[in-house]
């Protein structure tokens, strides 16, 4: 019984922290792209840098969460795909102009 409780708690904590890549993809304009949660690099996932003093230790700690997050991010990215495409289109569209302005001649 105790093993089952520990397993359930560990699974719950893992799943509670998952889906973060999709949330980051939707919130951050610089990272926003279709299926950005699935294609997010490990260093972007834990918010570290590749050259930081503890980057290797952080990568060792976060990679199981990153792996579990991939299938959940696939589902989340599929659900948020219309929003992501719409936001990406709005970010890339040039400002609308009214054409050349004609000034009345004197």
Secondary structure elements and their pairing?
Blueprint: H1 2-16, H2 20-27, H3 36-39, H4 42-45, H5 55-79, H6 81-92
Question: Structural class, please?
Answer: mainly alpha
Instruction: Note the total helix count.
Output: 6
Shape descriptor: flat
Radius of gyration computed on alpha carbons: 21 Å
Q: How does the major sheet shape up?
A: none
- The proportion of strand residues reads under 5%
- Overall number of strands: 0
End-to-end CA span:
93 Å
Overall number of structural domains: 1
User: Poorly predicted ranges (pLDDT <50, ≥5 residues)?
Assistant: none
Share of helix among residues? 55-70%
Give the rounded overall mean pLDDT.
74
The run of helices and strands is: HHHHHH
Plain-language structure description:
- With 106 residues, this protein is an all-alpha fold.
- It has one domain.
- The protein has six helices and no strands.
- Helix 2 (20-27) crosses helix 5 (55-79).
- It starts with a helix and ends in a 14-residue tail after the last helix.
- The relative contact order is 0.16.
